[in-house]
Amino acid sequence: MPESLRIVTICSIAPLAHALVGPLRELGHEPVAVLGPRRDDRREMPPHLVLTDVTAPAGVDLLFARDKHAIEPLLRSYEPDLMLCSGFPWKIPQAALDVPRLGSVNQHPALLPRHRGPIPFAWTVREDDPVWGMTWHYMDAELDTGNLLAQGSTPVLDDDVKIDEFAPRSHALAMGLLPQVLDRVMAGDPGDQQSEDGATWAGHFEDDDYARIDWSHSARAIHNQVRAWHLTFGMSGLRAPLAEIDGNEVVVLQTRLTDPGGDTRRVECGDGPLWVVATEPA
User: Is the same domain home to 107 and 245?
Assistant: First the structure.
């Protein structure tokens, strides 16, 4: 009979916790706790994203760490075989990563070593990458540099604007790789060392020029600019770039490369039209 692992999952929002706990149970393992960060900005998040007794998966303990140094003793109290991480905002100390008997594994939404860092979705479209990547890797003291366990990709579509438009495909990809990941972990496989060739950093946007739309650029470049800012999830200051339309300064919230119909605005770019779906006053 296959080994059943005691697993603590670490994440920051409720849907990610459900995305891990359910499949782990289906694979015959025992998720025992969900550990999240204690945050002061929880009230700013939509209620369905906030980890609470109501939104967390049933049948597991819900833990909140006051800071990164509190993670190690919380993990030790559960004696986990494995820790699985997805979408956690803190750099976890090595002492905490070493607590689980079989190590700690992270799900990173990029093809590592490309787009290491906090906002890989945003950099995927900023760089006009053809695919959304997914990597499972062992965690070490640095961010997204540990040995690789499994990778896969799914195409970036022109209408992949909001995360809920492509997240189901990315989730299916990640869960399809999970059995392979767990098999390698249980076999004591150390994973494949990451190469530094092609490594990039998906850090928070700081480029002032990228915060303003230049309509002389191509429609695709501007479309990528708008959705890249959207996929920073507000972590880079602005949540959308600024632009001038008909003499008015606006924040461009959403665009499409083809006419979606309805109350949209066609704007001519350097190589053709782009449809502005949503704006708000600057």
Answer: no
